[in-house]
Amino acid sequence: MAQNRPNFQSTPWENKLPSNQNSRQSNHPPALTLPISSARIRGPSMRQPREFTSFSYDDDRNLKFDDSSLSYFYLLPDDLHAGGGIDLSAGYNTFKKRDDSEDEHLDGLLLSLQHHEEQTGRKTMADIITWRGVMTKLLCLPYNKNDGFELNATWFDGHLFLEEHLQYKLAIQRRPDQRSELMSYWGYKFEHIATIPHTWNECSRSEIESRQQQQVSNYAQYCSVVKTGIGKIKLVIAGEVDCVADYKPDPNDMTDDLNLYDNPLDHYVELKTNKIIASDRDATAFENKLFKVWAQSFLLGVPKVIVGFRTDQGYLQTMEEFETQKIPGMIKKSKLYNQYNSWDGMDSLAFLAACLQWLVNMVPKESNVVWRIRYLPRSDFLLLIRTDDKTFLHPSFVKWRTDFKR
């Protein structure tokens, strides 16, 4: 839920030590801190995301350096009205769900970078390399202070690598009840019945019509890897893409001429589900949910979001399309908009620019040393603390980059 608007300060923010940190009680120095309510770089320049490689996980969670797990959106409005709507609970008992406690770190991203660099002979340039989910947490933080998290950070070969600290996430997770598990499944089911594995003309009739009866799995994923940036910080971000609206341009047709470049990102679509809006309370909850939807789509450059609206019993009734770039403006024009409580995309970007600049400046450039970025629920500081952990980077990528420099 959106938090109270940050208290803007006219004086520049500065790094301060929290009063509750005592260096004499630890082998490490006190934590460095970033004040969330005042850390801003106003009007940061944004680099348009541009995909430069991609990768897939198949149904057995094998990593492939191709687009084999890319899906194509195909769901007709008439399909929603037959029989009172599509039952998103169908097949729940046979759901093939990936074990979220298995820590994959940045492995898929790093191995895809290695493969790309081996193919091109050029090293990828960036200040920070991470998953889209990590960036989403930081971007949303000024207006989402109820949820704590921890990130791991380490320098190697001129890049700052960031990942979520999975052990902390698992430790604070509430054990989901059956209702929560079912609602989570509805999202995967919507993705399954709204997409086909190939373009329409390449799919058989049975592939299209049997989607409701097929087993749902979240093992397979297609991920886009993009170059982007905010302020002075250059970024490489990887994130899952739900599907394409029409087609993905052939990489062999790519050109460095920006006037002719057909950006694959322009064709991607984010899929979400939400309960049917029947009251102002429902509308407020949906507008708050759109904050994270906008953030994750904006960061990766996905231009379109399709939301499937369902009943409380999980029957899909309608769909609505939203343009990512227009979501913040739509929120401000809403009759429910409140300047003191509603989220502000530009302010969040100003914080993200300051946060990333702070991390690049403050995390010591020591290879094989892991620092922890900690956010405690409902606090106003990000903490940066040295750990005794060693690098979380994939050994193959480390060896590749070490040999690459010779």
- Residue fraction in strands: 15-25%
- How big is the Rg? 22 Å
Provide the number of structural domains: 1
**Discrete helix count:** 10
Give the integer mean of the pLDDT values.
89
The beta-strand count equals 17
Structural class, from helix and strand content? alpha+beta
As laid out across the biggest beta sheet, the strand order is: 1-17-16-7-8-6-11-10-2-3
Note the overall shape.
globular
Q: Roughly how much helix do the residues carry, as a percent range?
A: 25-40%
What is the distance, rounded to the nearest whole angstrom, between the alpha carbons of the first and last residues? Answer: 51 Å
For the largest beta-sheet, the strand count, sense and barrel status come to: 10 strands, mixed
Which regions contain 5 or more consecutive residues with pLDDT less than 50? 1-29
What does the model show?
With 406 residues, the protein is of the alpha+beta class. It contains ten helices and 17 strands. A hairpin with a 5-residue loop joins strand 16 (371-375) and strand 17 (381-386). The model is unreliable at 1-29 (pLDDT under 50).
